[in-house]
Design goal:
heterodimer; A: 410 residues; mainly alpha; MetI-like fold; two-stranded antiparallel ribbon; flat; B: alpha/beta; Rossmann fold; six-stranded mixed β-sheet; four-stranded antiparallel β-sheet; 11 helices; 23% strand
Amino acid sequence: MTLEMTSGVGGAAGESFVPVKIKPIRPREFKRSDIIVLGAAGLAAYCITWILFDQLTLLSGQLGFVLFCVGFFLGLYWVVNRQLFTRQVAVDRFVAALMTLGALAMFIPLLLLVVFVVARGWNLLSAHVFVATQKGVSELSPVGKAGVAHAIVGTLEQVGLAALIGVPAAVLTAIFINEIGGRFTRTIRVVVTAMSGTPAIVAGIFIYAIWIATFHQGYSGFAGALALAVLLLPTVTRGTEEVLKVVHQDLREASIALAAPEWRTVWSVVLPTARSGLVTSVLLGVAVSIGETAPLLMTVFGNKLMNSNPFNGPQAALPLMAYQQIKLPLQADIDLGYTAALVLFLLVFTLFIVARLLAGGRRRTPGFAALRSRIVNSSLGATEIEQDGFADTPIASYPPSTSTDERDQR
Amino acid sequence: MTLTNDSAKSSRSSFAAAGGLDSIHGEAGEIVANGVHAWFGKRLVLENVNLVMEHQKVTALIGPSGCGKSTFLRIMNRMHETIPGAQLAGEVRLNGINIYDPSERAASARRHIGMVFQRPNPFPAMSIQENVLAGLRFNKIKTSKTSDIVEESLTKAGLWNEVKNRLSEPGGGLSGGQQQRLCIARGLAVKPSVLLMDEPCSALDPTSTRRIEQTIKEISHEVTVVIVTHNMQQAIRVSDYCAFFLAAENEPGRIVEAGSTTQIFEAPVDPRTDDYVNGRFG
């Protein structure tokens, strides 16, 4: 596309403009030739590594092969781009390639994990699995007789009870730290932070020591729920605290100026404003606790039969069942363990979608986006995030008004 | 308007109400500051402020930044004490009742002395209607005529015609100027005696500013308005009385001069007032 254009307007005094040919360019466009360069560099790196590994030396090992391949690729890619373009372009392409490889190095294991569980658990997955238990299942039973219904019920009850105990406690703690404060704010924050580093098994031992060994309550889903609540508490507390920080001070002042008591301000203004972020932090907590196996070993114990009463007797749980089945010798038992893991995946997935739909129904609050960006920021090591960074969000991020100031002119 | 304590005392006698703040019902009130001092930590920021803000009038507090105007405003509805380390001394009397009397609750003072802030701050999780009624809800004021109150408050704030068909939409969806008028409506819904405004137009465009100023003029017949402003023209346009605050370097803010707006702007007594209102500093 070539345009002829003359322009006689503007310009410095006495300067005349010559008509120029205009060819639109996109300086950062990744053209077909660039893809060829990329592919060729990759292929060449593979070939060099192959020659090096299989022909010239006695090096072996897949990890070494991949690492050498990546190294050669980056080197070749840099050299080729340096030959074809300027230094800036070469650096840009090199760093982009490095970042993409880094992202893949993170993403591929995650993907493999999901693929692995789905592939192993897929065989036995059927509607039957969701209704049947392991009742009467022995080594001689036909494959596919057993199900995970008892573990689904157990997990839902344990995590539900844990959330019932842990979430209110966590939200109240966060409200205390952020809204009320006092002499113990610092101490409590330190304790909560320390708690979030508690190994899951310690939570299990703690509940075992108190609930089962001291009070002789026996194994039960409730004991498991207590252990999970211990694990859920710090995650939800810290998440909620971050979300509450994002609620702008102006809103609290407005509420106080309307003569609202402090509890009213928290209940009617702060919590509703942070609703979406609250749901996110509760979800994070549930996600932490739903996959825990270690604390359940000593509290729930596991059960092959359906026990829908969480307050009496050992119960099954999906992560616990997966762990226990996979250790068994028979292939059918191992497969059932993987099916339990897959069902756990599906359960978490469903819970998240439902919770997101419930929370995202009215998109008024910036809570989730703000929390996400804060988490990203803090994981990057930026510990000092100024609160004013979100100063405008509570007002500016609502759906833009259709009626603007034109209406004001009336 | 005078600065002496005599007038403060006489006003108390004419407005004396028995039974504390909770006995006040809806009428515009006279608010008197008597010997008000304010500290942040150990630093004195406001010294001996004596001012009468007459009922059904608009009083503007003017002065350069950092002279204590906003602090003074926040003292008048007990918002100053919500800041950690803040202290104060002196009396603020609403219709003769000292709002800092130990027998008065802070909430009662705030219930009768409303406030509009610099930045529009409607509650984002509430609809327009819920925002207007928030004060009633917070104070557990039961009424069967909620829709009447919504309409009345929004009409007074000059917003009714623009939002009457979308009362259940979120308050955050309005424009900045509309949000600020929603905040005024929210403040008026509880029928306060006094409405304090802390630079209510500084975050708004000129058109919205004009609209708010018009609203202030309209509501001043029913409620006493005290407005902090940096905009001298605005003070001239909206106020009946003016108080000029000034803080010399490393000194607390004081009232330099107070009087009718005409007098302050056309015949100021103090040369510093003259300099300020004519734009020679500040």
